[in-house]
Amino acid sequence: MIRPILLCLLCLLPLSGQAQNTPPGQELSPGAFPPPPVTQDGLPLLEARPNFANINALGAFIDGVVESRKSRDHLAGVTVAVVKDGRIITLKGYGTAGNGQKVQADKTLFRLGGISQSFTWTGLMQLVESGHIPLDAPINRLLPPELAMPTAPTGPLLVRHLLARTSGLESTSFGHTIRTTAQGITDLGTYLQRYHPKPVRPAGQFAVPSPYAAALAGAILSHVTGRNVASYMEEQIFVPLGMTHTSLREPFPQSARESHVLPPAMNDILANMLSQGFAVQNGRPVPQDFDYRSHYGPAASASATALDMARFMLAHLNDGAYEDGRILQAHTAKMMRTHLFSNAPGMPGTTHGFREYNLPGGIQGIGEEGSTLFFRAKMVMVPDLDLGIFIATNTSSGTDLVSSFADLLVARYFAPESATANHDASTDAATTSRPRPVTKADARKMAGYYLSLDRPFTLVEALFRAPAASYRLSLDDQAI
């Protein structure tokens, strides 16, 4: 039988060593739980319709999933936060953060990569809410003249296009996105002037991730408010929500600070709480040097604890407020949960700031994911369930755990009952249309060779990245 979920693959228009012997996850809620029995594949055995309110069983399930993948994939450390119904359900830390420190969910900062953009989009929507930025304004009206983008024949690039990931800009990375030393790091404006990607499709046509577009959003935020992006985030998002262990700043060595002008540096207190990154060598995780992204920080440079990410998710799920802090009015928070664009009917797309995710049982989520050279992270919120899930690892081999964790949790606790839940199609992004089943006739039309839009088109880099961006879909008796 051909699976409906293959619709996303067919379109191919993306949005998107032995481990150290450590005890099971440390958590702020009481109790430590041994891993439950596992299958031959290392996954916890499932019970019929388990009760999410059973905190002990939930903790045991999470421990089982994380510890099995941590051992299999030689992960140094993992951090997890789960929130539901307006409160933090569990916070967990596993393994080591390096330098002799254990991972603590409320103290250890993990790098977020692309999840940094969630803060940038939230800040941009604050300015939409206040009337400083119209959604349909050309971005060149909101940028300093030296950062103005060329206007394409099909029309100007709008603020709405940035939020929807439909900028139409070429995806490039060689030589400018990652710095393994602080030498050569520039401020945001200098970076944006130096690396202008070309428009390769009309703005608004397809959703394709663009770190440059997110960095442009940060430049708009900075130009309109007169504040650097890191300071704005601290004042308008992190402090109101009590996110005292979150920053877009990076820990530059003193020698680099003295040699040339750098973006604002992370303070020493937070820098000492920042986990090291690890790569697996000879079957064990080995600490690696820091890789810098401050030059396009609004797209990629943030670090945070699981506790702070729990607070951020709770604010978005609770119409912009958490405890005594508010970062958005209710109607704006709802806009950020509302579907804005998708590349094809039935495919997950974007809201006014978040990606959409198809989860097990027809459940729809929103959020963001990200990576650096050695960190992997993912945040998923399910507005219909008032549920938020955050997971991050400090090891480059952790992609499988991070990408699958939210699906495993939703499948175990919510998919059986939620698949038939009633949804109001006029409200949140969690109510976007479901994909229809794919027939064999459909599949025959779709079989063939595909080339991802998330690639360079015009530079020498295109010669190297094109093979990795190409796909072949073929049909047999069972599936594509």
Automatic annotation (TrEMBL):
It comes from the Bacteria. The keyword Signal applies. Residues 64-398 form the Beta-lactamase-related domain. Residues 1-19 form the signal peptide. Keywords: Signal. This is Beta-lactamase-related domain-containing protein. It comes from Iodidimonas gelatinilytica.
